Amino acid sequence: MTTVVLLLIVLQSVMSQNLYELLEINKEANEADVKRAFRKLSLKYHPDKNPGSEEAADKFKQINRAYEILTDKDKRQVYDQQGLEGLERLERGGDNRQKGPNAKAEVHVSLEDLYLGTTRDMSITRNVYCPKCRGTGAKDGKTKQCPKCKGQGITMQKVQVGFGMQMQMQVQCDQCGGRGQVNQANCGHCRGRKVVNDVKSLNIVIEKGMKDGDEIVFQKEAEQIPDMIPGDVIFTVKQSSHNRFKRVGDNLFYDLKISLEEALLGFSKRITHLDGHLVEVSSKSDEVIQPFSWKVITGEGMPKRNMYSEFGDLHVKMIIEFPKTLNEKQKQLIDQILQA
């Protein structure tokens, strides 16, 4: 017998009973309340304490099943909004609810943030399932048969199909939304809207080596819409331009200004990196630096994401600053050097 079949058999045994009533808790109970109630009842109805009692054994299975459902966030949402029938569909073939829209925003960071890694705390305002009725819109979660469709979830509607001809078609009941049940009374907290306004604080982790355009995803943290899977909150990394470094992939690029004298006779300079450490760039005394030539400093680029011990390279472009004017003596000296 497959696991799904076994689950359905146990599920059918609790079909006639409210899972919250089964665990002797109210609909507002949090996960800690559910666990506390389960421990108490499982001790009471455990087969070892009730040898030979089929009633206790059956009750033990029921409270275990109720505990499994009410401590699983997704299953509990489906149960609260679609009842055990919706949960049975979930057990048979997965969650048949459509996914709600994603919420998107940008998080602005500096190049230093992407080099060192950082965090941001951001708050979002969204609708969430009412904590009092858990998204049912009904006071105490209590419903009654829909008076319009008589619990069928569908009604018959006459449709014009041709000149003087009509036919009847089954359509979803517009009063109960196809559920066959309506609220006995609306929840006083959400006034039957099923959702309330909520402010959620999210801690955004900017990992070392992240790039402009990377996405940080908080799954199922977007707007909560009844009978839909919550969408994701997606933050897109937006890096501000830097006044000294330019990033391409995992490499950094830097323009270094040197004098004509340094280009001809050699130099040694230090570049202050993004985290404050100094990187030495130099040339030998017998090396003539050509304008716009490059020096590559291995391992001094950006950290590679998820491989923090590995870095790209630092590419340094030589910007030679020529003198704006020369006096006669300087011209003569240069002429002598070039003719030598």
From TrEMBL:
Natural source organism: Stylonychia lemnae (Ciliate)
GO terms of molecular function: ATP binding; Hsp70 protein binding; unfolded protein binding; zinc ion binding
Annotated gene: Contig2347.g2528
Residue ranges annotated for the J domain, each copy included: 18-83
Keyword S-adenosyl-L-methionine appears in the UniProt entry: no
Identification of the protein by name: Heat shock protein family protein
Domain CR-type: 117-199
Record key words, sorted: Metal-binding, Repeat, Signal, Stress response, Zinc, Zinc-finger
Zinc finger (CR-type): 117-199
SMART domains, per the entry: DnaJ
Signal peptide as annotated in the record: 1-16
CDD domains recorded: DnaJ, DnaJ_C, DnaJ_zf
Gene3D superfamilies to which the protein is assigned, alphabetical: DnaJ domain, Heat shock protein DnaJ, cysteine-rich domain, Urease metallochaperone UreE, N-terminal domain
Keyword flag Disulfide bond: no
InterPro entries in alphabetical order: DnaJ (IPR012724), DnaJ_C (IPR002939), DnaJ_domain (IPR001623), DnaJ_domain_CS (IPR018253), DNJA1/2-like (IPR044713), HSP40/DnaJ_pept-bd (IPR008971), HSP_DnaJ_Cys-rich_dom (IPR001305), HSP_DnaJ_Cys-rich_dom_sf (IPR036410)
